[in-house]
Amino acid sequence: MTHQTTCCYCGVGCGIVVRQEPNGRLTVEGDKDHPSNQGMLCSKGMNLHYTVMDQSDRLLYPQMRLNRSMPLQRVSWDTALERTAAVFRTLIQKYGPDSVAFYVSGQCLTEEYYLVNKLIKGFIGSNNIDTNSRLCMSSAVVGYKLSLGEDSVPVCYDDIEEADVFYVQGANPAWCHPIIWRRIEAHKAANPHVKIICVDPRRTDTARSSDLHLPIRPGTDIVLNNAIGRLLIEKGYIDDEFIVDHIDGFTAYREQVMQRTIAEAADLCGIDADAIRTTAEWIGRSKGFLSLWTMGMNQSVVGVNKNLSLINLHLITGRIGKPGNGPFSLTGQPNAMGGREVGGLANVLPAHRDVTNPAHRAEVETFWNSPVKIADKPGLTATEMFEALADDRPGAAPLKAIWIINTNPLVSLPDLNAAESALKKARYVVVQDVSNRADTVAFADVVLPAAAWLEKEGTMTNAERRITYLPKVLNAPGEALPDVEIIWRFAQKMGFGDAFSYNTAAEVYHEYTQITAGTNVDVTGVSYELLKAKRSVQWPYPAGGWGQGAESGGAGTKRLFTDHSFYTTNQRAQLHAVPDGNNSEPTDDDFPLVLTTGRIRDQWHTMTKTGRVSRLNQHAPQPFLQIHPKDAEERGIQHGQLVEIKGRRGEVRVKAQLTEDVRPGLCFLPMHWGKFLNNTLGRANNLTNPLIDPRSKEPDFKFSAVQVTPY
Ligand code: SF4
Fold first, then answer.
1. Ligand 1 within 6 A of CB of 7
2. What is the pTM of this model?
3. Ligand 1 center to 516 CA (angstroms)
4. How far apart are CA 422 and CA 429, in angstroms?
5. Rounded distance, CA 575 to CA 494, Å?
């Protein structure tokens, strides 16, 4: 028996065919009918069935304890949810609705995201819900909003075959978005004139297969993009008519980028001025200019400015809303975009509405028939939640309880020693997860077993706005339940039964589609039946509307802004004259090196899934530190030697890998290894700093000051 579904790892959102043998064995292969991957899968996707067949780490039953010195004990679902509801009610009565919070995940299905958002914002009366997408995409979200009027990725994967210049900045798609990268490589192989430019302080596999690698100093992306903007203006590569007709802010932008000469910019970036000139020439002469970026741009204390500086290049050249052209933020997680659509961030409401907009709040309150007013201020974001749990000073945020769903913050948050202390201090911690390998289980008062991939139905939206249906193929083990059902059961225990009396995920999805009516994210034309018939569609997709038009054969909206009418109030896109400074943690004599963190090819996030697959572990079985031979020599460090990396907040001990793939002054540590099940000494986020971008609240993972010594 075969089933079509979607890979649950990254935002590429590859279609997968799962085959069930009569003996129960599963196999997987790429779905040739899925437009996103056309049958291809990367190493993680090809090995997904092993994570399903190995159930040795599964949480099977609800567990509870009355204090954390006791062992967790098996209880019934009713007992676990009734106690949690009683604790939540007591805290809310005593300290107000902001005393509780949900921390969710880009792994959640759209229905789960929608329902937990409805519960806390519309019924508990707090905006304290945030997602690990805050650590990933929130700088891109704010960049899009400020430039284009809304969090809207304008392009699609088919633009790859239409482009002739790819500007890849702060991303390593060869490892982290492999199927997109294979499409780019195939396109270049068939069209040798196509140019790929990679901007990255590290010589990654992406950089190695690019035509031009710009190994800039960490934190100088804006300097580079502004210099390219200056050259595009000076060389006459801008689209004057497009700017006059559709763009605001050009005068201020031109003044800003003219402040620095190309020689100064090259010096600051630590690269050759001719490389900047070549980049500008290639972009300026291209017919299709596609930029791709991820965490090197987003995970920064100036992440929003970095995003704006890149989107600016598309606006001044008019390279947006046309085939092969546009800014393309590569989504990290499989459903980070679906979560944003339904309002799964502390500052937004469903269909990209804003919690600070009274009209938006009123629309949603009416739709939900909310018994409370939706709070008019953003709730606590990811890192703010953990800071609040630790802070009991008078006047501090009153957060006492946190419910963590399908994410492992004690590996993935920055400054983990502080995050761990915060969770210890929390009055009440609920962990809802698939796996007992989540590091948070050790701190939980209640553990709720969730159904995994293939064990529940729902939808996800990938990086190109493509919604795909995921069927239930297997029964969940033990008493594990779909996340959406856990939330509606809990809401019923809280006394909100009338508004949470669902029987199926399809009912939840239908309700969500109706709240999008008339918005830029309108998906009123989408249903499970439609998705089963069409396999996938791209939003917007209004009922009977233009989303189903001839351009895409009824498969939705391939590109946004093709009419050059943007989502701002005056329909004009906005250029932003962004300063090129960086406000990261300073280096000094004690901590002279910059540490950057990131993914490796065959692991996914905190390794709760990929860490169990021996084939995937073979690529890099242990954490390691990449350091330049010159920096190593100065410190007496040999290749393969155990070293201690010390920062202002903690230390890590791993083996050194001497390589010229990192710039002198920079070192790299993979982000995947945690403390409890993997390797205490390799937990990269012991070292990362708590700085965040002031607008996106995204952490500065890519720039922490450290020292490295032989151990
Ligand atoms: Fe899964 Fe991403 Fe690999 Fe596709 S590219 S198979 S979505 S991990």
1. yes
2. 0.96
3. 28
4. 11
5. 47
623: closest CA among 660, 664, 657?
657
DSSP per residue, 115-142: HHHIIIIIII----EEEGGGGTTHHHHH
Cα of 426 from ligand 1 centre, angstroms:
36
527: CA distance to ligand 1 center in Å? 25
Instruction: Return the half-sphere exposure (C-beta side, CA atoms, 13 A cut-off) of residue 700.
Output: 22
Q: Which residue has the higher pLDDT, 331 or 179?
A: 179
Pocket-testing residue among 17, 18, 32, 41, ligand 1, by greatest number of atoms within 8 A of Cβ:
41
Q: What is the pLDDT of residues 197-239, one digit of tens each?
A: 999 999 999 999 999 999 999 999 999 999 999 999 999 999 9
Q: Whose CA is nearest to atom 2 of ligand 1?
A: 10
Locate the ligand 1 atom nearest the alpha carbon of residue 179 and give its number: 5
d(CA 674, CA 607): 8
Q: What is the pLDDT of residues 141-171, one digit of tens each?
A: 999 999 999 999 999 999 999 999 999 999 9
Measured by CA distance, the residue closest to atom 3 of ligand 1 is 42
Nearest atom, ligand 1, residue 334 CA:
7
pLDDT(69) > 60: yes
Establish whether residue 44 lines the binding site of ligand 1, counting it when its CB lies within 6 angstroms of any ligand atom: yes
Protein residue whose Cα sits closest to atom 4 of ligand 1: 14
Residues 68, 494 contacting (CB under 8 angstroms): no
Phi, psi values for residue 428, rounded to 5°? -150, 125
- Ligand 1 mean position, distance from CA 41 (Å): 6
Q: How far is the CA of 36 from the centre of ligand 1 (A)?
A: 10
Q: Are 593 and 706 in contact (CB under 8 A)?
A: yes
Task: Calculate how far, in angstroms, residue 532's C-alpha sits from the geometric centre of ligand 1.
Answer: 21
Query: Residue 677: its pLDDT value, please?
Result: 59
Atom of ligand 1 at shortest distance to CA of 604? 8
Is the CB of residue 28 below 6 angstroms from any atom belonging to ligand 1?
no
pLDDT band at 554 (very low <50, low <70, confident <90, very high): confident
Residue 679, pLDDT > 90, answer no
ipTM of the complex, rounded to two decimals: 0.99
Phi and psi at residue 6, to the nearest 5°: -130, 145
The tokens describing 520, both together, are 């830029």
Helix axes 358-368, 505-515, angle to 10 degrees: 140
- Segment 538-547, tens digit of pLDDT: 999 998 765 5
- Specify whether the CB–CB gap between 139 and 306 falls below 8 A: yes
Please report the domains of the chain, with CATH numbers, ordered by start residue: 2-53 (3.30.200.210), 63-133+335-552 (3.40.50.740), 138-330 (3.40.228.10), 593-710 (2.40.40.20)
Question: Is residue 428 in contact with ligand 1, taking CB distance under 6 Å?
Answer: no
Which range among 392-401, 569-578, 628-637, 638-647 shows the weakest confidence by mean pLDDT? 392-401
Please tell me the predicted confidence (pLDDT) of residue 638. 97
User: Does residue 474 register a pLDDT over 50?
Assistant: yes
pLDDT at 675: 78
Alpha carbons 204 and 212: distance in angstroms, whole number: 12
pLDDT at 550 over 50: no
**What does residue 289 show for φ and ψ, rounded to 5 degrees?**
-115, 110
Q: How far is the CA of 192 from the centre of ligand 1 (A)?
A: 26
The verdict on the CB of residue 14 being under 6 Å from ligand 1 is yes
For 533, the enclosing helix (H) or strand (E) is helix 528-534
Whether the Cβ atoms of residue 7 and residue 331 lie closer than 8 Å to each other: no
The predicted pLDDT at position 545 comes to 61
Q: Is the CB of 13 under 6 A from ligand 1?
A: yes
